[in-house]
Amino acid sequence: MYQKGGCLLLLWMWGVVTASAQTKYWVFFKDKNPHDAPAVSAKTLENRRLQGLTESDETDLPVNKEYLKQLQSLQCQPVIASRWLNAVSATIPAQQLEDVKQLSFVEKIQPMDGRFYIAKTNARRRSTMAPVMTQIQADEFKKVGLTGKGITIGVIDAGFFEAKESHYLKHVFDNNAILDKRDYVNPPLTHSDAFYKTQETFSDFHGTEVMSAITGTSRTENTQSGLAIDAQFYLARTDHGTREWRGEEDNWVAAMEWMDSLGVRLINTSLGYAQGFTDPKENYLISQMDGQTSVISRAAQIAADKKGILVVVSAGNEGDDPSWRIISTPADAQGVLSVGATNQRFWNRIGYSSIGPEYLSYLKPNVSCFSLYGTSLAAPVITGFAACLMQANPALNNKQLIQIIEKSAHLYPYGNNFVGYGVPLASRALGLVQNSAEASATYAKEVKAEGLTYILKIPEAGDMVSLFHKKSPTHVLSQEIVRVRDGQLTLKRRDGETRTTVDLKNEVIEVIWE
C-alpha cells in the first residue's frame, strides 16, 4: 500500500539540486514489475469502487526500481518517478545519452529542457471576487447549506506565500483544514511554516489568491470570496515563478499522483504552459495543444479517465496575444474542466481569456466566469462550485459533474470556443443534481433566418445584449455588444457566418442562417 514520503519523495530529493544545472529528460519505460503492490491508499481504492471505476490497474504500480538503479549506474540522476506514465524525469550527462537510449527497458527519451513562458497569471495581493459570487448565484448554495463540507480539494500552484496571514483564509488554518502540503520546487520547505513564509518571486502569492477564490471568507468584512469554505485541502507547489521551463512539468505530474494516492477527487490547477522554446525542435506549436502532445495533458487525461479525478484548469490568458491566442496545456486535455473568463456586465469573453483551437473535436474552454485578474482566478471559483455539488451528491463522478456544470451554464447547449457553455448558475446546477423541475426547464431556443438581415423580437431583454457571430456551431468569428430598440434586435449577417448566438443571460437564442 501507499506510504507517505516513500519512493517518490526519495527520488525528488535526489534530483532537486542537479535538475536546474543539467539537461533534463523524460525516460519512458516499456514495462513494470507485475509483482509490485499498487502505490495508492485504501481511500483511493474506495473512491474508485464507489465511482464504478477499476480499483487498480498497471498505472498504479510503481516504476521498476531495478530500472532506476541501472540509470544511476550510468551517472543519471532520477528526479521524479511517474507511475501513471511509467517514466522518470532525470538529468542525463550528454556523453551518457546514447547509452541510456540503448537500454533494453527504455521505450523512448523526451527532452524537457529549454525556456518557455508560463501562461500569464496577473496575480494580485487581494482577490476582488464579490461580482463573480453574484454572477454564479452563490446565494443559492448558501440557502441550502452547501459549503464544500466533507470535500477534499487538491491545489497545485506556484506558491502559497502569506496564506497563514490572509484574513480570507484564517478559517482554513483555524480549522486545521490543510491536511498536508508539498513543495516540489524547494523540498526542504515542505514540512514547516517556511512553506508559507518564503518568498522568491511575486508568483509565490498566486496559490494564496487561488485559495481565496476557492474557499475565502472574511467575518470581519462580512464577505465571501469562495464557495468551498468548509472544504479540506492538500497543497502542492510545483512551479517557480521566475524560471519557466518545461522541466517543471514533472513536478506537476508528481503532485497529481501524490494527491490521487491520498484519495483526492477534485484538483484545481491554475497553471498553464504555452510557448517560447529557444530551440525550435523542442518548442510547443499551436497545433500541439491537442490534449495528447504534452506530458501533463496526458497525465491529466489519465486522471480523468482512470482515476475519477475532476481536474479544473485555467484556460490561459493569451487571448490578446496575436502569436498564440489559444488555450495552454493542460487545459487542452479533453477530460479536464477548462475555465475561461468573462467580463462582468455582458458575460462574453474578456479580452485576455484564451480561446479554444478550432482543430479540436471537443469544446474548450468548457465554461467561463467573471475574473478581472486572469483565468487563474476564474478556475478556482468553478472548483468551489464543483465542491458544493459534490457535497450535495457525493455519488456523482467526475464526468457527471462536468456534464452538470456545463448544462447549468447560461449558454447551454449553444457553447462556443470563446466562453464554452458560458457561466454556470447555481440554481440550474442544483436542479440538475436534485432532478427537480429546474432540470427540465428550457432556457434556449432556435430560430431560422434568411437573407442578410433579421429582426428578432426580444421584449424582456435589457438595453444591450451580447452576440456571438459564428462560422460553425461552436467556432466564433467575433463577439459584439448591440443595442435593443423597441423590444427588437436587428441582426446583420457577416461574411462566413452560419449562426448567431444571442445571449440574454437568463435565456439564449440561436439564430441559424439559411
TrEMBL record:
Sequence ranges assigned to domain Peptidase S8/S53 in this UniProt record: 148-422
Signal peptide: none
Matching SUPFAM superfamilies: Subtilisin-like
Active site as annotated: 157, 206, 376
Gene Ontology MF annotations: serine-type endopeptidase activity
This protein's UniProt keywords: Hydrolase, Protease, Serine protease
Pfam families named among the record's database cross-references: Peptidase_S8
GO biological process: proteolysis
PANTHER family: EGF-LIKE DOMAIN-CONTAINING PROTEIN, PEPTIDASE S8
Sequence similarity: Belongs to the peptidase S8 family.
Protein's name in the database: Subtilisin family serine protease
Native organism taxonomy: Bacteria, Pseudomonadati, Bacteroidota, Cytophagia, Cytophagales
